[in-house]
Amino acid sequence: RKEVEQDPGPFNVPEGATVAFNCTYSNSASQSFFWYRQDCRKEPKLLMSVYSSGNEDGRFTAQLNRASQYISLLIRDSKLSDSATYLCVFGTGANNLFFGTGTRLTVIP
Amino acid sequence: EAGVTQSPTHLIKTRGQQATLRCSPISGHTSVYWYQQALGLGLQFLLWYDEGEERNRGNFPPRFSGRQFPNYSSELNVNALELEDSALYLCASSFEGLSNQPQHFGDGTRLSIL
Question: pLDDT tens for residues B20-35?
Answer without folding.
Answer: 999 999 999 999 999 9
